[in-house]
Design goal:
The protein has 414 residues and is mostly helical. It is 57% helix and 5% strand. Among the domains are: 116 residues, no CATH class; 62 residues, no CATH class; 41 residues. The chain has a two-stranded parallel ribbon. The protein has a two-stranded antiparallel sheet with strand order 3-4. Strands 5-6 form a two-stranded antiparallel sheet. α11 crosses α12.
Length: 414
């Protein structure tokens, strides 16, 4: 580049453009080839001009242009690219940069490190860490979930195997949804009648009469008929035999009622599971079709994912009457301050935020916010019209000539 002077006097007269370009260190593609690969003449021999101190631009920047230069800048040579070597690395970098379910798991991936930590702590001893490498995030996550489920199932089975039959049955009944109080009552009745052996009955006439009475009442007989039956058995000396038959009949009744209770609980659980699947499907469909909740405020894909999690996953669990109960975000938030939560909820309902047509009128809210901000601005200008330190922009009116433009006084820099 030559050192041509601009003959006209302007703000850039005296500035050597060539020196400026060289100082910036910009090596444009083709610049070296055009000069035959030769360096510029010694700048000390050029005519001395007013110059700028650009020593802080010490790092040169090469802009890649050709395919080889671009590949080299990405860390892969042209030979590697043609041979396929390094292509997997580039692909992995792209996948890692893209994120989401397509990320390829490596040893330094957070998911792998999390799984390795659990494995080392003995929480997931059967997990094959090598099976996670090279898998997409979604597939690796499913492998981790399966390993966690197997671990907890094995731990639960190991614990249940250490219990006696009655304790195992108690846990099984809890798991199918039978309330703890009902299970305890069932067991107490079973235990009470199981202790009535033939020997116990033979030595206690009053117990014989009580057993017979209970059995007859279960069959629907009135008190009068029960007394007639007892009198006949006592006169015929058949109380013991009638008592044994009544005991066996009561035990059969208890077992039958227990069976009915279990079947009812299983049907209710199946029905609840079916409704849960349908509910989650409805939630997913509703969220996918949803564009906005507040008028004019679009919902992003990531926000839809969070909304689905809020609607389907509990935030904590509590033990109520010996049974784990899932607590969702709404109930947890409400439990922190019930009065304030209900107050805000009813206020939002009154504003129309729960209208199905999604035509909520937010003008009242916006007017309040705008009015509040305008009041704050007016108050600030009233208190400090000159801006910080009194050096803000000021407009002064010249007396005697209203047609002249106002003079603007700009801030001064110390």
């Amino acid at each position: 580049m030559g050192q041509e002077k601009n003959e006209s006097s302007n703000a850039f007269s005296g500035v050597d453009i060539g020196t400026l370009e060289k100082g910036l260190g910009m090596i444009m593609p083709g610049a070296v080839e055009a000069s035959g690969g030769k360096k510029e003449p010694d700048e000390g021999k050029k005519e001395t001009k007013q110059s700028l101190d650009l020593s802080f631009f010490s790092q040169k920047m090469q802009i890649p242009e050709t395919a080889d230069e671009i590949a080299k800048a990405a860390g892969v040579s042209k030979v590697e690219e043609e041979s396929g070597a390094g292509s997997e690395e580039v692909k992995d970098k792209k996948e890692q940069g893209k994120g989401g379910e397509d990320v390829i798991i490596k040893e330094d991936s957070p998911l792998y490190l999390h799984a390795a930590t659990l494995h080392e702590e003995g929480i997931l001893p059967t997990l094959d860490l090598e099976s996670l490498k090279g898998k997409p995030f979604k597939e690796a996550m499913q492998l981790l979930k399966d390993a966690e489920k197997k671990y907890f199932d094995d731990a639960k089975n190991e614990y249940k195997n250490s219990l006696n039959d009655r304790q195992k049955e108690y846990i099984d009944l809890l798991e199918i949804g039978i309330p703890q109080e009902q299970i305890e009552h069932q067991f107490s009745v079973e235990d009470a009648y199981s202790k009535v052996t033939d020997q116990v009955l033979s030595d206690d006439v009053e117990l014989q009469k009580n057993i017979i009475t209970q059995n007859l009442k279960l069959k629907g007989l009135s008190d009068t008929k029960v007394q007639v039956f007892l009198k006949a058995a006592e006169d015929g000396e058949t109380l013991f035999e009638e008592a044994k038959e009544s005991r066996d009949s009561i035990n059969a009744y208890i077992a039958d009622e227990k069976k009915k209770t279990i079947e009812t609980a299983k049907l209710a659980q199946t029905d609840a599971d079916k409704k849960e699947v349908e509910l989650q499907k409805e939630i997913k469909t509703t969220i996918e079709k949803l564009d906005e909740i507040l008028p004019g405020v679009k919902i992003s894909a990531s926000e839809k994912t969070k909304l689905y999690e809020f609607m389907t996953k509990p935030v904590e669990e509590k033990v109520v009457a010996g049974k784990k109960v899932a607590v969702d975000l709404i109930n947890k938030t409400r439990s922190e301050n019930k009065v304030l939560f209900d107050l805000k909820l009813k206020y939002f309902i009154n504003l129309g935020l729960f209208n199905e047509d999604n035509k909520t009128d937010l003008t009242k809210i916006m007017k309040k916010v705008t009015s509040s901000n305008a009041d704050k601005l007016a108050l600030k200008l009233k208190e400090d019209p000159g801006g910080p330190d009194g050096k803000g922009v000021k407009f002064e009116k010249e007396e005697g000539n209203n047609n002249k433009p106002k003079k603007i006084i700009f801030p001064t820099f110390q």
